[in-house]
C-alpha cells in the first residue's frame, strides 16, 4: 500500500514533487511533438477613398447626402507550421473598430479546412457570379434603401452564417473541389446548410475554366431550397469572356427563379482594363405578374504601382420583378495598397 505524502521520502512512498516533474516532462514532450515553427505575423490594409451614388431611380436623388467614404479595415494575419508539416493560419479583421471577419485554417497534403468564426463565403457563394468585370457585377452598386439587402437586385447566391466550415481540395490536374457546411443553428430554417463547387481548368486548353456548384438547405416553414449554377470563362489575347446560368428551385413552385449572366473584359494594356456585363433574372410567379429583372453595367480599372482607380456605372430594370423598379447608380474607388 502506497502512502501519498510529499514530505516523506521513505521506500515505497510516492513523492508528489517527483510526480509533478514527471508530469511536466511528459507535457513538455507532447508540446515539442506538436510544436510549430516561429509564426509569421503581418498586417494588411490600404488607403481607400470611395465615391458611391446609388440613385433612387424613379424618385430621383442619391440616398446619402455625402457620397464620399473612406476604407477603415485592417487585417491581422499569423501563420506557422508544425514539425509534422501541418500548416496553421489565423486571420482577424478590424472593421470600423469592430472585430468583423475572423477565421482559422489548417492545411496539408489533403488540402485545407477553414473555419469561419464570422464572415466568409460558402462554396456556392464564392461563384454565384464569376462573369468577367473590371470592378463590380452588373447587379452590384444599386442599393435603394442603404441596407444592401431589401434595396438591392435579386441574385441567386449561396447561403451564409457564422461558425462555418469550408474545405478546399488540392489541385487534381486542373480540377479542384470546395465544400461548405453551416451548422443548423445558423440557417434560416433550422437545418444545416451544405454546398459544393467544382472548377476545372483543362491543361489542354489554356485560358478555359469550367465550373459547377450546388447547394441545399431548408428555409422558413420547412421548405426545401435547391440551387445550382454553371459557368464557362475563356481568356485569350487580352479578352476574357464568360457566361453563367443559375437556378433556384423552391418547394413552392411560384418562388422558383432562373438567371443568366454574361460578361466581357479587355485588357488594353497591363494597367488598364475595361468591361461590360449583363444579368437577367426570371421569376416563376403563379400569377405571371413578375417582370424579368435586367441589369447591365460598364466598368474600368487602372493600376499604377500600388495605386488602383476603378469604377462602374450600373442600371437595373424591374428590380425584384417590380415593373416600376428601375434604378441606376455609379461608384468609383481610389485605393493605395501598403
Question: Which of globular, elongated, flat, extended, rod-shaped describes the shape?
Answer: globular
Helix content: under 10%
Category from helices, strands and their pairing = mainly beta
Number of domains: 1
Please state the CA-atom Rg, rounded to the nearest Å. 26 Å
Name the quaternary structure: single chain
Low-confidence stretches: 1-35, 56-62
- Write out the strand line-up for the largest beta sheet, numbering strands in chain order: 1-3-4-5-6-7-8-9-10-11-12-13-14-15-16-17
Give me a quick take on this structure:
The chain has 1 helix and 17 strands. The protein has 338 residues and is mainly beta. The protein has a single domain, classed as Porin.
Provide structural commentary.
The chain has one helix spanning 16-33, and strands spanning 40-54, 68-70, 73-81, 87-95, 98-108, 111-118, 164-168, 175-182, 193-200, 208-219, 223-236, 239-250, 257-267, 272-283, 293-304, 307-317, 327-337. It is mostly beta strands and 338 residues long. It has a single domain (44-337), classed as Beta Barrel (Porin). A 16-stranded antiparallel beta barrel has the order 1-3-4-5-6-7-8-9-10-11-12-13-14-15-16-17. The radius of gyration is 26 Å and the shape is globular. The model is unreliable at 1-35 and 56-62 (pLDDT under 50).
Amino acid at each position: 500500500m502506497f502512502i501519498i505524502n510529499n514530505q516523506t521520502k521513505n521506500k515505497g512512498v510516492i513523492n508528489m514533487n517527483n510526480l509533478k516533474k514527471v508530469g511536466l516532462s511528459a507535457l513538455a514532450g507532447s508540446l515539442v511533438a506538436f510544436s510549430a515553427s516561429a509564426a509569421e505575423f503581418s498586417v494588411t490594409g490600404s488607403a481607400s477613398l470611395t465615391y458611391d451614388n446609388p440613385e433612387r431611380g424613379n424618385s430621383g436623388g442619391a440616398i446619402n447626402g455625402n457620397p464620399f467614404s473612406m476604407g477603415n479595415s485592417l487585417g491581422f494575419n499569423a501563420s506557422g507550421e508544425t514539425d509534422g508539416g501541418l500548416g496553421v493560419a489565423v486571420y482577424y479583421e478590424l472593421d470600423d473598430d469592430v472585430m468583423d471577419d475572423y477565421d482559422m485554417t489548417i492545411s496539408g497534403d489533403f488540402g485545407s479546412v477553414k473555419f469561419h468564426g464570422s464572415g466568409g463565403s460558402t462554396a456556392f457563394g464564392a461563384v454565384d457570379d464569376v462573369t468577367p468585370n473590371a470592378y463590380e457585377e452588373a447587379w452590384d452598386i444599386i442599393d435603394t434603401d442603404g441596407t444592401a439587402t431589401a434595396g438591392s437586385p435579386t441574385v441567386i447566391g449561396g447561403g451564409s452564417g457564422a461558425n462555418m466550415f469550408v474545405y478546399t481540395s488540392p489541385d487534381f490536374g486542373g480540377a479542384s473541389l470546395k465544400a461548405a457546411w453551416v451548422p443548423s443553428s445558423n440557417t434560416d430554417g433550422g437545418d444545416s446548410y451544405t454546398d459544393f463547387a467544382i472548377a476545372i481548368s483543362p491543361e489542354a486548353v489554356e485560358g478555359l475554366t469550367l465550373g459547377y456548384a450546388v447547394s441545399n438547405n431548408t428555409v422558413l416553414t420547412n421548405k426545401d431550397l435547391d440551387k445550382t449554377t454553371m459557368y464557362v470563362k475563356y481568356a485569350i489575347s487580352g479578352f476574357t469572356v464568360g457566361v453563367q446560368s443559375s437556378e433556384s428551385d423552391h418547394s413552392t413552385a411560384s418562388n422558383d427563379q432562373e438567371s443568366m449572366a454574361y460578361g466581357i473584359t479587355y485588357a488594353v494594356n497591363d494597367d488598364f482594363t475595361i468591361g461590360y456585363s449583363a444579368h437577367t433574372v426570371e421569376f416563376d410567379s403563379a400569377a405571371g405578374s413578375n417582370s424579368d429583372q435586367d441589369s447591365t453595367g460598364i466598368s474600368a480599372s487602372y493600376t499604377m504601382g500600388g495605386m488602383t482607380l476603378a469604377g462602374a456605372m450600373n442600371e437595373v430594370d424591374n428590380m425584384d420583378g417590380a415593373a416600376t423598379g428601375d434604378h441606376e447608380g455609379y461608384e468609383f474607388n481610389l485605393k493605395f495598397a501598403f
